[in-house]
Structures are given as C-alpha cells and as structure tokens.
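Chapter summary example.
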Amino acid sequence: MAKLSIRREDPSQPEIIELLRNGEAHSAMLYPAESNHHLPLDALREPPVCFLVAREPGGRAVATGALVVHDDWAEIKRMWVERDGRGRGLAKEMLGSLISAAQAAGVTVLRLETGVASLAALVLYEGAGFQRCDPFAGYKPDPLSVFMEKPL
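The structure predicted for these 152 residues follows.
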C-alpha cells in the first residue's frame, strides 16, 4: 500500500469542510448538541492551531486532526477519519503526527475530550498512553464526555 501523507493545511478548503461536516454529523448521531465540542472553522484557522490533513497517494483527503496549543499544554481536536478510510491505521498515524507536532511546539501535556460512545477513539487514545482526567479548560463535567491527558 502506498504511503499516506499528513501535512498542515488550511481547513477552509471545500473538501476539508466536507470532512469536518461528516465528523459533526457523526457526532450528532451519537450525542446531543450540548455534548459536542467542535471548534468552528474560523477557530481552526487561528495561529495557535496546527490543522493536519491526511491524504491518500492520489490526493484525496481522508482524515483530519487539529492541535490547539495553550502555552505548555495542547488539546487535540477534530480527529476524524472518513468511513471508507477506517481500519487502515489512519487514526493512529494522525495521532502520531499530532503528538509529534505537540512535541515540536514544546508542549508537556496533551489533552483531549471524546465521547463515551466513541469506543474506537477510546481504544486508540488509551493505547497511545492517554489516561482519564478531570475536565479542563472550561469544559464542564458531562456524563457523555471522557477527558484524557498524556504527559509528553
């Protein structure tokens, strides 16, 4: 299988907006609106955000991920793999790229919020060494949310 490319890109490209909308639609099927915490497109284009896109060899975008840097810690946002890209290790590759970007930015702790019904995500994050933690950075306790962190 040819190598996937993961690079920093502008999230406002039409095909990337479609991926973001697909991720939002998936979340909306699993959780009520108050339990979804997606960053809007404008926020994804701000300087503290590193927005990554995974593309297949032909150039088709199949996954996204964002890193929002807050001084010495960062939050992973907008991890999404298109349905036909699942089961190929794309999420693991994207997570590895986000961790590398965090390390390059001098981040010492990586945090994230995901949902209790997002079982594949929970397995991925736990397998990468993330551990459950209390809500952070303005998040409120939510029985549908799982908060995790990993020291780097």
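To summarize the output: The chain has one domain: 5-151.
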